[in-house]
User: Fold this.
Amino acid sequence: MTEAKQKTVLLGICGGIAAYKMCDVARQLVRGGYRVKVVMTKHAQEFVGAATFRSLTGNPVATQLFDDPHAPINHISLAQEADVFLIAPATANIIAKLAQGRAGDLLTTTALAYQGPLLVAPAMNTQMYLDPATQTNMALLQARGVEIIGPASGELACGISGAGRMVAVADLRTAVEESVQTSTSLAGTTVLISAGPTQEYFDPVRYLTNRSSGKMGLALARAALRRGAKVVLVLGPVTEAVPVNNRLQRIDVVSTEDMRAAMLQAAPDADLILCAAAVADYKPSETSLAKIKKYSLSASAPEGDAPQRVSIDFSFNPDILAELGQLKAKGVLKDGMTLVGFAAETDNLDKNVQKKLASKGADFIVANDVSRADIGFESDENEARIFSQQGMDELLPKASKIQVAQQILDLVCSSSA
Ligand code: PMT
Assistant:
């Protein structure tokens, strides 16, 4: 049996119509070699009987805090046994209880006692999902390191179409597999990652930035943590949840100059540097301490006419990746340190990447097409090509950003080894 096949997956099933899909999740995980244990709420049993999951998993199904007076205390033993805990379908009610740390039944008590990776797949009516209370609860869970999977959009049981469908069975299985796929291949190494946008202020309330959400860089951070690395994450202003982990050092920055200073300071200790941040190439030449008045940047207009245009003078920002490439070439950074840059392209990808490989001194460039709405900026998925100084040109097919991140690490680590 492989390492993954010996893992225990705990499924927490709540009362929603998608509960029936969990039969398939349980079956697929059992077939994949996992030991599957199931906790059901009272409402979940209105949709699917516990006997179904007992048959599918070959294990007793836990439904109450005190199922068997002779057995070990259920919520503690379940929490200790599990390598990953997937709560799906997760109703608005369970999400609220998890956010508040309530422990009124077996499922919530187990969740509170559980210390490992917790995955939550919401499924509910669109209005319930979009309600600020649910959104706040989910954000709170994410900030605590809970992985929220979905929801997807589509036709809902209540007859309307919108966000709130539980994600597909295959996506749940993949999420479980990914979260137990830990290895120690990067243990003892330090991975330095830049992520998110930079913001270049030209007065206290206005700035130049770009659409980077930080998702790609955060996925790289998660992937590196799963392999045992210490991660230094230099992060521009983002709203995405950042993993909470004692091997993660988070450095928040705003401007390109801040990002440069943080990256250069951390670089000498790094074994691998991944520059996924979308760094602003330009900054306003001057930054006003006071808010600039409406017409003060305007081109002159004939007296009495309101000016029609404004102009701002920009100057170039430093190129952090190129600077790291120069330090590597000079031998100032760690011996064998691998430098990976990204390329955000809308056209002429091949030509532009070759230019970047030549000018930035990176060992690898990961290029993505940012003109597409389904990948690149802000999207949960990406598709990329990875190029190396040695002539590698490999397609990383469209997949979730965490999967793309895993592939990047696989290729970079195996080629640098
Ligand atoms: O954050 P997401 O919403 O998930 O989106 C992900 C992403 C599209 C931002 C990411 O996949 C990506 O492509 N990141 C690089 C964006 C970028 O700035 O590309 P570029 O082609 O302009 O720059 C090339 C490389 O030089 C990048 O590694 C960049 O970090 C670096 N650079 C650029 C300019 C600069 N002044 N300093 C730099 O270090």
